[in-house]
Design the sequence.
């Protein structure tokens, strides 16, 4: 997380809204000789204290969990973009990157195999609901033998979330005119939907 507290004043409720909307992050667990990372979809509880996910069975993290629970971090990345000093309309500025990121820290553990169906269904239900009015896809649509074969290749996991910390680096340390100028420049540069989202967040402060 960025050390400047001006970028870290958002309430936990906003962090959770962002995490729930994104529902995808980088899971990191300490290992020897270096940390192990995995990109995962997940479902987080309403109060933000519990997270459900799944891993491929031969994932190194899944193998580590056969020895018991372990500390873990999930980094959830939001929109980000390069900010040119020219956009501020001020002298003596330097290039930077604005971004949103939230870290979830806690204890990761394996769940029993019979919990897998429920975990998969809850995660897919969450994402399918966003596609309305398309009818919700359900696992029952799959041929049972094919579904069971695929499920044998993955394992359910959960994380007890003990800490939620976030950085919303959106130019709060600049005068309003400079921040809006940077948002305009970012959007006019036309780098894609992510930078458009970032510019909107910069203007919303």
Sequence:
């Amino acid at each position: 997380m960025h050390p400047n507290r001006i970028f870290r004043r958002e309430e936990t409720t906003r962090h959770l809204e962002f995490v729930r909307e994104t529902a995808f992050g980088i899971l990191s667990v300490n290992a020897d000789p270096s940390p192990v990372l995995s990109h995962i979809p997940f479902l987080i509880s309403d109060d933000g204290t519990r997270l459900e996910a799944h891993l491929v069975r031969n994932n190194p993290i899944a193998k580590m969990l056969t020895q018991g629970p372990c500390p873990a971090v999930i980094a959830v990345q939001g929109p980000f973009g390069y900010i040119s000093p020219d956009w501020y309309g001020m002298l003596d500025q330097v290039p930077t990157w604005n971004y949103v990121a939230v870290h979830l820290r806690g204890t990761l553990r394996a769940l029993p195999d019979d919990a897998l169906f429920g975990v998969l269904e809850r995660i897919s239900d969450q994402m399918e609901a966003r596609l309305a009015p398309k009818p919700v896809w359900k696992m029952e649509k799959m041929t049972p033998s094919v579904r069971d074969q695929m499920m044998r290749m993955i394992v359910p996991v959960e994380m007890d979330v003990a800490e939620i910390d976030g950085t919303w680096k959106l130019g709060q340390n600049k005068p309003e005119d400079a921040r809006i100028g940077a948002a305009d420049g970012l959007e006019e540069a036309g780098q894609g939907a992510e930078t458009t989202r970032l510019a909107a967040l910069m203007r919303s402060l």
Q: What stands out?
A: The longest strand covers residues 154-169. The helical segments are 12-22, 60-65, 116-128, 144-151, 176-188, 193-203. The longest helix spans residues 116-128. Residues 180 and 204 are 10 Å apart (CA to CA).
